Amino acid sequence: MKPPVSAADPLVLFMPSGKRGRFPKGTPVLDAARQLGVYVESVCGGRATCGRCQVVVQEGNFAKHGIVSSNDHISPKGPKEERYERVRGLADGRRLSCSSTIEGDLVIDVPQDTVINAQVVRKAATDRVFERNPAVRLCYVEVDEPDMHKPLGDLDRLKALLERDWGVKDPRVDAYLLPQAQKILRKENWGVTAAVHRDAESDRPSIIALWPGLHNEAYGIACDIGSTTIAMHLVSLLSGRIVASAGASNPQIRFGEDLMSRVSYVMMNPDGREAMTNAVREAISDLIVKVCAEGGVSSDDILDAVFVANPIMHHLFLGIDPTELGQAPFALAVSGAVHLQAEDLGLKVNRGARVYLLPCIAGHVGADAAAATLSEGPHRQDRMMLLVDVGTNAEIILGNSQRVVAASSPTGPAFEGAEISSGQRAAPGAIERVRIDPETLEPRFRIIGSEKWSDEEGFAEAAERLGITGICGSAIIEVVAEMFLSGIISEDGVIDGQLAAKSPRILQNGRTYSYLLHDGSPRITVTQNDVRAIQLAKAALYAGIRLLMEKQGITEVDTIRFAGAFGSYIDPKYAMVLGLIPDCSLDEVKAVGNAAGNGALMALLNRTHRREIEQTVQKIEKIETALEPHFQQLFVNAMALPNKVDPFVKLSEQVKLPPKKSPSDDASGSGEAVPRRRSREERAARRARE
Amino acid sequence: MKPPVSAADPLVLFMPSGKRGRFPKGTPVLDAARQLGVYVESVCGGRATCGRCQVVVQEGNFAKHGIVSSNDHISPKGPKEERYERVRGLADGRRLSCSSTIEGDLVIDVPQDTVINAQVVRKAATDRVFERNPAVRLCYVEVDEPDMHKPLGDLDRLKALLERDWGVKDPRVDAYLLPQAQKILRKENWGVTAAVHRDAESDRPSIIALWPGLHNEAYGIACDIGSTTIAMHLVSLLSGRIVASAGASNPQIRFGEDLMSRVSYVMMNPDGREAMTNAVREAISDLIVKVCAEGGVSSDDILDAVFVANPIMHHLFLGIDPTELGQAPFALAVSGAVHLQAEDLGLKVNRGARVYLLPCIAGHVGADAAAATLSEGPHRQDRMMLLVDVGTNAEIILGNSQRVVAASSPTGPAFEGAEISSGQRAAPGAIERVRIDPETLEPRFRIIGSEKWSDEEGFAEAAERLGITGICGSAIIEVVAEMFLSGIISEDGVIDGQLAAKSPRILQNGRTYSYLLHDGSPRITVTQNDVRAIQLAKAALYAGIRLLMEKQGITEVDTIRFAGAFGSYIDPKYAMVLGLIPDCSLDEVKAVGNAAGNGALMALLNRTHRREIEQTVQKIEKIETALEPHFQQLFVNAMALPNKVDPFVKLSEQVKLPPKKSPSDDASGSGEAVPRRRSREERAARRARE
């Protein structure tokens, strides 16, 4: 295929991939890109009509590469390119790579439309560029007219040209196209655009859609089906641009708030599975309508879809009874990647559209965790990365390019504000930031809807206007951590009743005490039970992390990624103070927003990412916390504030810890002696596990 | 895969394939067969439970192969095989090849259940043995139980075992199975039978059905959709046995008797295409119910289906508007083989069942002709074979392993008895055999329902009982040929009016004459128009054959095959007398019954036959008679009785031709001078072409 090259031929470097090679003068830039495996979109097949193959010449001396690149080294615009510029317009410096040829050394920039991670997670918009190699391509061909001497069928002649012009070998044709093909081929005088799907290199390609003439629009959806929220992106498969994003509540909530109650609903109701499957599919169909309207896109132009979800959402979406996932051994019906047609799921998109679901890692660690792994890439780097997605279960991935381990830990709903006496959802009037003076034990706080702290001028007006209504999710961690830092609660998590003498903020409730955060209406307090709930949740999370660290044989991690909403809300410093996460430089603790959604996007835009995550998931070592006898011990140890097992070398440099009350409690790192009075927590912990 | 072998290892020869190889002692016979590519069915995967892998040792000295084969050279029955024999029974000499090992030189007979071509065509039952390699296989595996340490999904563990035990690599799973898989796997304690479909070696296999435990039944249907009749076989994919056969009228007849009138119906009626598609699919569904009832088979066990049809039936069955096929350039929507799911066509069989349609050769030469080619195999032999399927169009294939050419010629319906004044369908009372005494011009004939000739004793009673009602299709050729042999009609096809003086059988009708075959009620005559209709039909057929012979550069053929009902009815001698077919030894003219149906069977039972016919069809040279200027001349020449262009060397030795009336007409082989008085026929011929 590649013509013989000599050292005298021009050297061409493509950016940002960095792929390079020598090509004889006169080689079209698009051909050179293809030969090097650089993905440059083209629908019209070099006819200079679709405008998808635009590139930019980078001028300058690239001494490191031995290239002096100049616009003189590319052929001047010919009549076809000039016609395109006249009719459709061509931005400054842009060239059609199909119509411009290599005439000297060149550095060619392949513009990658920036993928904008829209506001799925509050204040966590990230801009990322994904290299594209979608599973669906548009291929324009001009089919030969029928010839009685060579009576090949219309579709057979189409196939022959797809092979000749696009290298698509012997594709299957979707059944629904058979009755339509002849009219489509004749409508624009035998010019036709075929959408060709091919997931893996080893797959036979399929013609999944046909349009008369040049069709220049192809979209995909990337969707994260969460237990609470469904988030969807609509993306151009041709440019990689996110055209629209939308989210909706998962309507399955009416069948059960959390995952296990939905499994119970299926077990108790004969039609439960079907009702929940229909509910989530309808919600997804509604979201498709919504993103299409927002993006001005016809749903018929959606040709590919990638879904990620936790195992129970994954199964319910596919119509699989999740009962097995509700009990040991938590058997998935299918753990590998799933390939379907959109029709199988009743999705209202192009009739030939394909669907891909990322693999699940284990019965508690789903395709959403696989997608987050794909997005953050612990397996792509040498540093030890901890990736945590906190929900009712915390999904924990720990590893690097050598080895990745994964587990799920039952944190319960406390981190989401449930089971907290004054907890409420994030809404105007909810307390979102808290500081406690360690001397006076007086609090300062901020509420959602106002920039002022409670001790600043102007706060009273805001409080009057908005009300002070409760503590939102993000502030729960913060207030408990501040109570610890100010000495209100001990390392055991007990609110110190002796302080009631010092401060009216410490209130007695029978045998336990609580902290009065705001004496208004309602009265906002942090009770001993609230502290216990947070302790249990953080102990579960930390014990899971610690278990994986032991599997990896490490005592600290290099970098920490918080995926999901939780990570965006909380302040990493307080997460570390409370001992949710292991010791790590605070600079290396990052909230990455909807990493699962980003992973879905990557799999949508580049099918090689599908192979990457399939292979990675096969290699990930799955740790089932329920099978690890040591987990219980780690859990009990992690009840302390901060965790007993951590040396706190770095944390002590970053956060001022309270003075130790009792030197005997400071036997850090041992983890063997569990004081007698922890037995209640221990029992609670056991209950939480059962 | 194959272990290293030495010349000292036993030599094993498999019959009837003749494949052979050396294997170390102790190799299971089934493994040896697999390594040599000998197809031996096995569902249970060597557990000695399905009994599908039976073989027979042929004892004796096979000197030609250097093998002395003996039952001592195979291991004695072990406990598993003995258990099978006790429980299920094992015919004398049969062994389970999975459980018996090679201990010395062996000749192994792989019993091929005889495929009985049931009475699709009257008196043409043929027994044929097809080597089996179906696209769908049953694979029994015992799946590992779920393991929390290795949390692979249930289907993923099934896949792993399909690869380990059956070499099925990374199959896709049909979407409809996802919700069912977990229950199926658990029902028989993780024993499960998977139906795996793989059409081509290069295809990714698919799991299309699942059953709990060992499932030992898999069927396919082979169906020929004719314009008039739909014929179906139900076949065991495991044994190759035809379990039931049935036929039904094509209900599309109510929309139009012949193909062109059905195309017209589509063009005139907006819902015409849909109505005809539904009609044929319903008829096929009814036939499926019928063959399943007859064979005692559940339609849910039908996993594969092969259809053949002429191009217009093919398109209507697939839901494709056949309008393009009704006009030049007769463009097929699709000519290559078509792969579908039974669901796409609404067929009521197993939900995962697959459908395969053989390729069409050209706009007038369909998948039925391709199937007949596959069955008779001109491309598999060196002799020049003429394969003719006569209907409203005659499909003509001529060739050998070097080169195959094909054409369609518009014979019209005369051969089927339509447009013949006393023509009727084959039913009791119809004249089916005719002889005319060349001296007296008196006829003798036989009627369907009686063994007696009309001049024999006892005929009168039969005639009284049955009536003498008309001339059936097969007798039309015979009576015209006998009229020619007895001198009643001239070489020009004119009934000789001068004979009216000699015989009262010659009747005058205005300017033409007719022959009185039977003076009863009704009166049965052969008119000048009847003779002309037969002349036109045979001229079209013969001109098409002659055109292909010219393309091949030959003047005679080695062997002739008549496919379809027509070939079974007629006497080859009379076909040759009238000049329907070229000169050939009469021994080499054979009626092969429903060759198209046989070809469909072959493609059903052996997927390598699918590749064979796909490749053959690509190589067949398609001749469009309408584009050949020479065809008109051949047609006019072929109006004569016998054809002017044939030297009649062999025919003259086999059939006593009538004395020539006019020596000047005997300039055989010239074909240039068309006598003026043929101009009427010529005009008729042109009309027939337009």
Q: Which structural category do the helix and sheet elements of chain A fall into?
A: alpha/beta
Question: Which two chains have the most extensive interface, and how many residues on each?
Answer: A-B, 52 and 52 residues
Q: Give the proportion of residues in helices of chain A.
A: 25-40%
| Spatial strand sequence of the major β-sheet of chain A | 16-15-14-17-19-18
Number of strands of chain A: 32
> What's the total helix number of chain A?
18
Report the oligomer: homodimer
Q: Rg of chain A from C-alpha positions?
A: 29 Å
Uncertain residue segments of chain A: 114-126, 645-654, 661-690
- Average the pLDDT over all residues of chain A and give the rounded result: 87
Task: Please report the distance between the alpha carbons of the first and last residues of chain A.
Answer: 63 Å
Shape of chain A: elongated
Largest sheet of chain A: 6 strands, mixed
Strand content of chain A: 15-25%
Description:
The structure is a homodimer of 690-residue chains. With 690 residues, the first copy, chain A, is of the alpha/beta class. Helix content of chain A is 29%, strand content 22%. Chain A has a 6-stranded mixed β-sheet, sandwiched between helices. In chain A, strands 31-30-20-21-22-32 form a 6-stranded mixed β-sheet, with helices on both faces. In chain A, strand 20 and strand 21 form a beta hairpin. In chain A, helix 8 crosses helix 14 and helix 8 crosses helix 15. The radius of gyration of chain A is 29 Å and the shape is elongated. At the A-B interface, helix 3, strand 11, helix 4 and strand 18 of A face helix 3, strand 11, helix 4 and strand 18 of B.
